[in-house]
Design a protein that fits this description.
Layout: H1 3-20, E1 38-43, E2 48-53, H2 66-76, E3 82-84, E4 104-106, H3 107-115, H4 120-131, H5 134-147, H6 170-180, H7 184-189, E5 194-197, E6 204-207, H8 211-215, E7 219-227, E8 231-240, E9 243-252, H9 255-272, E10 273-279, E11 284-292, E12 300-305, E13 309-314, E14 321-327, E15 341-349, E16 352-361, H10 370-379, H11 381-418
Antiparallel strand pairs: 1-2, 1-9, 3-4, 5-6, 7-8, 8-9, 10-13, 11-12, 12-16, 14-15, 15-16
Helix pairs in contact: 1-6, 2-3, 2-4, 2-6, 3-4, 4-5
């Protein structure tokens, strides 16, 4: 398997877990004042789902499909590339940025038109520019969805128009948003109240179709969607009291309900949880964990936590996490650097293992010199026994040689006297 295939497989495994993960029992119920038939909210850093409602239900999601369009473009194209408008002609009622036939525009501006104005003509131009045709692009969209573990998702076009067999879920939408938010260009773009496209035949300025980004200072994304079949959809994001939250609502009856639901979901979620430190880098285990150092009799090295790990717990709950050693060496040998990984520990929540952290050297250990090695070797009980055995054997052998030499000396003396 190629390095790229391995990387894709690892990415798929990670997002597959993320996309289908269920919340803990304490976090299951979304608030009643959120009216959307499908809803979910999670915390970005820990990937903790705080609540969900029919989060895996297949449903059309309108222009939220453009999140996958954006991901493929970011993975396959450069922002400085220039694409030419192709064969797509948007109907007057469609959202568009007004591209002219044969007009050329940089990918950077096409992405702005795609995500801020939700331009269908921008989506079609990007699809044709990246893979040559919209059909080929849709095949790659579905392949990428499978690679990322988005099991509730199937695409029919890169735009989000209603089509038989086209569907996704709010769980897959937040998983996709989490993936995209790793990209700095995307993360900054979806938090813009308005944008201006400078390439193309003429400058164009658009306000963000996500009203919350323009009106609520702590909302920072992500993407709207709407069709007759989908109703109103919003993948939202907001930073409150140090927590970055990602949400999605689908099937809302109006823009107003979509926005109200999203704001209510995010503010409610922040009140439900607090972040605790499940493991802190440099901290000792309880009790402290030490291992012998080879060639240094009596000396031991303490192993400590190698990285900080934070988790969410319900507000008011005490920190429930403990550490349990998993992999620990019988002994260690220098040279070792401070912080060098030597083992691992399980992060336990009650009887359930929820994560794993490395165990590292609390201090450096120099390489043992020849004198230390020799001294340590002969200081060990088996070595002492062997040394005494060798010494005893040497003494016995010497005595035998002395006894064996005496008859020869007597004969030599008698012969001398006889002569």
């Amino acid at each position: 398997m190629s390095a790229r295939a391995l990387a894709l497989a690892a990415s798929a495994a990670l997002l597959a877990v993320l996309a289908v993960a269920r919340p803990a029992a304490a976090f299951q119920d979304c608030p009643a004042d959120v009216k959307a038939p499908s809803a979910i909210v999670l915390e970005e850093r820990t990937r903790t789902v705080i609540c969900e409602r029919r989060a895996g239900q297949d449903r059309p999601v309108g222009s939220a499909v453009k999140l996958m369009t954006a991901l493929l473009v970011l993975e396959k194209a450069k922002l400085s590339d220039v694409y030419t408008t192709g064969s797509y002609r948007a109907d007057p009622v469609e959202s568009q940025i007004g591209l002219l036939p044969g007009e050329q525009m940089k990918v950077r501006d096409l992405m702005r038109g795609l995500l801020i104005e939700s331009g269908n003509d921008a989506a079609a131009t990007l699809a044709e520019g990246v893979f040559g045709s919209r059909r080929a692009f849709v095949r790659m969209m579905n392949r990428r969805a499978r690679e990322l573990g988005l099991h509730d998702t199937h695409y029919k076009n890169p735009i989000g128009l209603d089509a038989p067999g086209a569907h996704s879920s709010v769980r897959d939408l937040v998983a996709l948003a989490l993936r995209l938010r790793r990209n700095n260009f995307f993360r900054r773009l979806v938090n813009q109240p308005s944008i201006t496209l400078h390439s193309g035949a003429r400058p164009r300025t658009f306000e963000n179709r996500n009203d919350l980004v323009r009106t609520v200072d702590w909302i920072n994304g992500v993407k709207t969607g709407h069709t007759l079949d989908a109703g109103y959809v919003l993948v939202g994001a907001g930073r409150l009291s140090g927590l970055q939250l990602i949400s999605a609502v689908a099937g809302a009856r109006s823009e107003a309900q979509r926005d109200t639901d999203t704001r209510a979901l995010l503010t409610w979620a922040r009140r439900q949880v607090r972040r605790v430190t499940a493991a802190r880098a440099g901290a000792s285990l309880d009790p402290a964990l030490t291992v012998p150092i080879r060639y240094r009799p009596g000396a031991e090295l303490e192993l400590v936590v190698g990285r900080t790990l934070r988790r969410l717990v319900p507000a008011g709950e005490r920190n429930p996490f403990t550490l349990r050693p998993l992999r620990v060496p019988d002994e260690v040998e220098g040279p070792l650097a401070p912080g060098q990984e030597l083992g691992s520990a399980a992060v336990m929540q009650g009887d359930r293992r929820v994560a794993q952290v490395p165990l590292v050297a609390s201090a450096g250990v120099p390489e043992a010199g020849l004198g230390q090695r020799t001294k340590a070797t002969f200081a060990r009980p088996p070595a002492i026994v062997l040394a005494f055995a060798v010494l005893g054997g040497t003494v016995l052998l010497a005595r035998r040689r002395r006894r064996g030499s005496r008859p020869g000396r007597r004969r030599a003396s008698e012969e001398a006297r006889a002569a």
